[in-house]
């Protein structure tokens, strides 16, 4: 089984520093070219020692968010240097009112990945993996009036489709994308009527996979993900 992408732990001062500084960088609160606060400044704010600050800085360097320069300090890097598929960077980007462009990029990634994943799922010879898709769909049905639970099971449905295809690379890419998708859905998928409207489309994908109709499964999944993108764009226009 492919290891799923995971975020950096928030435990302790070290983890808190990573997440607080990372979020400030990704949201632009700390702009490109700006120096990070000094070890002394961060120590006073967080009550942390220099070792915690230095370890947090190393993590941010590894994510491409900052670079350490002699006699200059630790400087915020431009977005082109960031590890954009890092789970934390994705979460920081999408949990803090993502831009329309960022949401479009996420939608485009889904359109590229998920229809082909549905095609592979329909072609799989191991029909037992389809049970996870069926179970997730039934839980979506049961939680239509509970947006928080529905989001969890909707994500699980799409994850199960990707995993059913048996392609480890696609599974890993989707697990990374799911970090952003979960954050975006917390903002945009809380409309119960919309969830009820989109449920039959998910059922159609499931039926095509069960029927081993790969072309139909792919086409229907494309409709699902493009429809979701359309809903997100409409939500932003009406805000």
Automatic annotation (TrEMBL):
- The name this protein goes by in its record: DNA-binding transcriptional regulator, FadR family
Query: InterPro entries recorded for this chain?
Result: GntR_C (IPR011711), TF_FadR/GntR_C (IPR008920), Tscrpt_reg_HTH_GntR (IPR000524), WH-like_DNA-bd_sf (IPR036388), WH_DNA-bd_sf (IPR036390)
Q: Could you confirm whether the keyword Chloroplast appears in this record?
A: no
User: Is the keyword Transcription regulation in the record?
Assistant: yes
Q: Which PROSITE patterns match?
A: HTH_GNTR (PS50949)
What Pfam families does the record point to? FCD, GntR
Coiled coil ranges: none
List the keywords (alphabetical).
DNA-binding, Transcription, Transcription regulation
Q: Which PANTHER family match?
A: GNTR FAMILY REGULATORY PROTEIN, TRANSCRIPTIONAL REGULATOR, GNTR FAMILY
Query: What GO molecular function terms would the record report?
Result: DNA binding; DNA-binding transcription factor activity
